[in-house]
Design brief:
The structure holds 2 protein chains of 2 kinds.
Chain A lengths: L2 H18 L9 H11 L1 H29 L4 H17 L9 H10 L3 H4 L2 H7 L57
Chain B lengths: L2 H5 L9 H22 L3 H17 L10 H31 L9 H5 L3 H7 L3 H11 L5 H8 L3 H19 L2
Helix pairs in contact in B: 2-3, 2-4, 3-4, 4-8, 6-9, 7-9, 8-9
The chains are: A mainly alpha, B mainly alpha.
Chain lengths: 183, 174
């Protein structure tokens, strides 16, 4: 062993042996730190708060819209009232008249604009047939009412003429468009 | 097998928290001793020791009892010290910029007490060379045991020790 090695050993023992007499500190546990960091810190917490806020706002908007339309805060009442009104509209249909869109629209407009904001209007009007008369060139003047339980008028009876909107007419100087027959 | 391991009442069971606590009590001082020679001060060495046991605990289930547990801990500790030195050099660059124009702080008496010329010279060595020196000349490992602990060939241990001694002689002027 060289002088340097001997000196190295004695010096290391002189400096490090007192360390052996020191009390041992308690061991640091990493589990608590990482779990707390996951729960309360960082981007995860920000995203969680935003998500919860979004859900709360959406729930509040649906509740307010439903209550404004039906006058009740109970969601079960909302569905019952709308179903009842649709059934009433169907009962009021006379022979030769089909489509309950106008009738349902009147119910909707009576109960406030909140339903429109919540997106209820398109779904309610979609069940009606106000667009099914006349203006649809593919229907050849007759509606293709998609509601299954809506009775079609008898084929022998008088056909109701479209009365909602006049036929569109071309402006005077509009060039004529020729449509080739379909095969 | 190290003296600490011989003194233990029984073999360590991988994954057992009680056994890991026993391992911590049996080996903490020796791991801290190694780290004191590798990092800049005592407080940093204590912090690195805790980091060493945190990392070891994360892999405690996968530790194989065939390997020397203290050699395994030393390997982790040396890697922690290397990481700390790397971060320290970055921190020092920031400190130099921050302290420009200010007087240098006075010496810390408690830190000065545990310093020696030789230890200061060791801290200037590359971490892996200093680790080989302390394992060989303080813990009494053979070159083969150091090679097993660090996962390197025995020949590499010999060359690291030779390079470390040569650099120490140059620094100390002997």
């Amino acid at each position: 062993m060289s002088d340097l090695e001997r000196e190295l050993e004695s010096e290391l023992h002189r400096v490090l042996d007192p360390v052996a007499a020191m009390p041992i500190p308690p061991r640091r546990t990493p589990i608590g730190r990482t779990r707390m960091r996951t729960l309360v810190g960082g981007a995860g917490a920000v995203l969680s708060v935003k998500l919860l806020t979004g859900v709360a706002v959406a729930a509040a908007a649906v509740t307010v819209a439903g209550a404004a339309t039906t006058g009740s805060v109970n969601p079960v009442d909302w569905g019952q009232q709308v179903s009842q009104h649709v059934a009433d509209c169907k009962d009021k249909l006379t022979d030769g008249q089909h489509g309950i869109g106008d009738c349902v629209s009147s119910f909707e407009s009576q109960h406030g604009a909140a339903a429109v904001a919540s997106g209820a209007r398109p779904s309610v009007k979609g069940g009606g047939s106000s667009n099914a008369h006349g203006n649809n060139s593919n229907a050849n003047g007759h509606a293709k009412d998609k509601s299954k339980d809506h009775p079609l008028p008898p084929k022998t009876g008088p056909t109701a003429r479209p009365t909602i909107e006049p036929e569109p007419s071309d402006p005077p100087n509009h060039p004529t468009v020729t449509i080739p027959p379909q095969r | 097998m190290t003296p600490e391991e011989r003194a233990a009442p029984g073999p360590y069971q991988p994954g057992s928290e009680a056994d890991f606590e026993r391992l911590y009590r049996n080996t903490y001082r020796r791991i801290l001793g190694t780290l004191i020679t590798l990092v800049r001060d005592r407080a940093t060495a204590e912090d690195c020791a805790q980091e060493t046991y945190e990392r070891a605990f994360r892999h405690w289930r996968s530790w194989r009892p065939e390997a020397s547990v203290e050699a395994w801990l030393h390997r982790i500790a040396i890697n922690v010290a290397i990481s700390d030195r790397r971060h320290q050099s970055l921190r020092q660059a920031g400190e130099v910029v921050r302290r420009l124009g200010r007087p240098a702080p006075g010496p810390d008496p408690s830190a000065m007490a545990e310093r020696s010329d030789l230890l200061r010279a060791m801290k200037k060595l590359p971490t892996k060379q200093a680790a080989a020196l302390v394992l060989r000349h303080y813990h009494g490992y053979s070159n083969r045991e150091i090679a097993a602990a660090l996962g390197i060939p025995e020949q590499t241990v010999a060359s690291r020790l030779a390079a470390a001694r040569k650099q120490l002689q140059a620094v100390l002027g002997r």
